[in-house]
Design a protein that fits this description.
Layout (H helix, E strand, L loop, with lengths): L13 E2 L12 E6 L5 H14 L1 E7 L17 H31 L4 E7 L3 H12 L3 E4 L6 H7 L6 H5 L2 E4 L1
Parallel strand pairs: 2-3, 2-5, 3-4, 5-6
Antiparallel strand pairs: 1-6
């Protein structure tokens, strides 16, 4: 049986795209989102940032929260949906600002310079915008644990940043 070589279907944990050696040119970028953060990812980013003494924390949270209301009673009442979505986005933004600040304080305690971005934008868009601005040498994000069919249909989270960012991307 032939092996599927579709880029988005099978993805190794460390995706390098002929990037300069890690730590040689820029900071470590920790990319987190509403559903993509973990203790392991944060630990890995702080560990790697110890070498270059720079960490960029990016929290991009979903703007299409209405998709999660479709299968609830709220989905049948557009006004409720809008009110709930606005409140939810404000709450999520505040929670992520607090998380980013806690991570930043931890990194600063280890003499790591920290820059944070918390945005209500599509995750990939905010990651690419920040990557272009900050020029990281390594991007760390949470490994997508979804089923293979899901990654094949929607694409891997790491599949987009790897070639576009010009640096190594590590899924933890």
């Amino acid at each position: 049986m032939p092996r599927n070589t579709d880029f988005y279907f099978e993805m190794s944990r460390d995706v390098s795209q002929s990037a300069p050696e890690f730590g040689a040119t820029g900071p470590v970028m920790l990319a987190l989102s509403t559903f993509k953060d973990s203790v392991e990812t944060i630990e890995a980013a702080i560990e790697k940032a110890r070498r270059c003494k720079k960490l960029v924390i990016v929290f991009g949270h979903q703007v299409n929260m209405w998709l999660y209301f479709l299968e609830t009673d709220i989905g049948f009442f557009p006004r409720w949906k809008e009110e709930c979505e606005k409140k939810l986005l404000v709450d999520i933004h505040q929670q992520q600002e607090e998380k980013a600040e806690a991570i930043a304080n931890r990194a600063r305690a280890e003499n790591i310079q920290v820059t944070t971005y918390v945005r209500t934008e599509r995750f990939r868009a905010v990651c690419m915008e920040v990557a272009k601005k900050e020029r990281p040498s390594l991007i760390i994000l949470k490994k997508n644990v979804g089923p293979a069919w899901f990654r094949r249909f929607f694409g891997s989270l790491v599949g987009y940043p790897a070639p576009q960012a010009g640096c190594s991307v590590l899924e933890v």
